[in-house]
Amino acid sequence: MKRSTWLVGIGVMLALLTGQTALAQSTSSTSSHTNSQQEKMKTCNADADSKSLKGDDRKAFMKTCLSKEGSASAKSGNSQQEKMKTCNADATSKGLKGDARQAFMKTCLSGS
Questions:
Q1: What b-and-e string marks burial along 14-48, b requiring 16 or more CB atoms within 10 Å of the CB?
Q2: What is the pTM of this model?
């Protein structure tokens, strides 16, 4: 009787140890995914702050930046549409209007 109790106890401990190992592995893979997402969020937030984006412009920028397509387009360079969005947001945040806005947009879109 003592021997069977001892074997059951060893079996339970082995099962618990196996379960903890599996849990640790699943947690580590989830945390590495979370860390990469957190890094992406930090980078996008820093970019939005450097461009002084607020409100709807910031939401649109963050959505684009955090999406997979957004990160691919950001890495591939500035497309004309992306330049236009960025320059427009910068001009709006600076409160430019009329000739000043036109001059700023021309300079911004030319990449100077």
A1: eeeeeeeeeeeeeeeeeeeeeeeeeebeeebeeeb
A2: 0.35
| Per-residue pLDDT reduced to its tens digit, 86-104 | 888 889 889 999 999 999 9
Please write the tens of the pLDDT for every residue from 67-88: 865 444 444 455 788 888 888 8
Q: Which residues contact 14 (CB under 8 A, 6 or more apart)?
A: none
Angle value at C-alpha 73, between 68 and 77, nearest 5 degrees: 150
Residue 52 near residue 90 (C-beta atoms within 8 A): yes
Residue 49 in contact with residue 62, Cβ under 8 Å?
no
Only one residue has tokens 């950001």, namely 74
